From TrEMBL:
Organism, scientific name: Vibrio hangzhouensis
Name of protein: DUF2919 domain-containing protein
Transmembrane segments: 12-37, 57-75, 87-111, 117-137
Superkingdom of origin: Bacteria
Keyword Transmembrane helix: yes
Alphabetically ordered keywords of this record: Membrane, Transmembrane, Transmembrane helix
InterPro entries from the UniProt entry: DUF2919
One Pfam family in the UniProt entry: DUF2919
């Protein structure tokens, strides 16, 4: 047995590691800012104006983060009977890697707009995105956590038999 019993949830799936949740939270940072701004009512527009002075960048961040938000939601909905959800969750790792690549390209574009001047925010963003991409590619635990379980069909199940 590769993993301890405490690493499984009540449905028999591996629990998602905390680093996966934190990395996904970083990928959906535009959604976090949007929700915080919406929850703060009067100061919401000021928060959005301060963090995203260009509204196009907010909308772009929301669009890039949407697949990750949906993947996180589906990850929480997994049960042993929900075969479609389990199948969709198996694509979450690849989708997250695509989003990381898009955000890397977006950050490089922003750096180019600043005439390649150093900025701590852009540097930290690049380092965290590269780290998360390496983590998604190399982590066996993430691969096992997000893989679709094999469906076991009983031998005497009449719904799975074919008639000649």
């Amino acid at each position: 047995m590769r993993y301890g019993i405490e690493q499984y949830d009540q449905h028999g799936f591996l629990k998602a590691p905390i680093w996966l949740w934190l990395g996904c939270a970083f990928l959906i940072r535009a959604w976090v800012v949007f929700v915080v701004a919406g929850a703060s009512r009067q100061e919401g527009s000021q928060i959005l104006q301060y963090v995203y002075p260009n509204h196009t960048m907010l909308y772009l961040g929301l669009m890039m983060g949407l697949p990750v938000v949906l993947g996180m939601w589906l990850l929480g909905l997994r049960t042993s009977e929900s075969h479609r959800i389990n199948y969709l969750v198996s694509f979450f790792r690849g989708t997250s890697l695509i989003v990381v690549g898009l955000q890397l390209l977006h950050t490089v574009y922003l750096i180019r707009l600043e005439h390649w001047q150093f900025s701590w925010a852009n540097a930290i963003t690049l380092v965290l995105l590269v780290w998360f991409a390496i983590y998604l590619v190399n982590s066996r635990y993430v691969k096992d956590c997000l893989s679709a379980p094999k469906r076991i069909v009983p031998e005497n199940d009449p719904s799975q038999t074919t008639k000649p």
